Amino acid sequence: MNRARNMLGLCARAGRLVSGEKACIQAIRSGGVRAVVLDAAAAKNAVKSVTDACRSHSVPLVIAPEGALGDAIGKPGRMVAAVTDPGMAEQILKGEFTPG
Length: 100
Prior knowledge:
Elements: H1 3-14, E1 17-19, H2 21-30, E2 35-39, H3 44-56, E3 61-64, H4 68-73, E4 80-83, H5 86-94
Parallel strand pairs: 2-3
Antiparallel strand pairs: 1-4, 2-4
Helix pairs in contact: 1-5, 2-3
């Protein structure tokens, strides 16, 4: 079972997820984010801006395999997602992503 992927889908359905680079960075800066998931296929500029925001605000960052993030949240092509629920974020950080 792929706990991280399943939990991301649950977060999206529960409304506890922010997706998209700009929206995630804004949420990180506002302080409500518990974990960030970044797709391995994200552009270099997106990786740098999200990584810098996470580092400066002490938010854990998880790298997902290519395409896994968009598939998990039902929005293919999304490269960044921020989890706002503490319990769900903890489960995502404990879980592992597997391709497919």
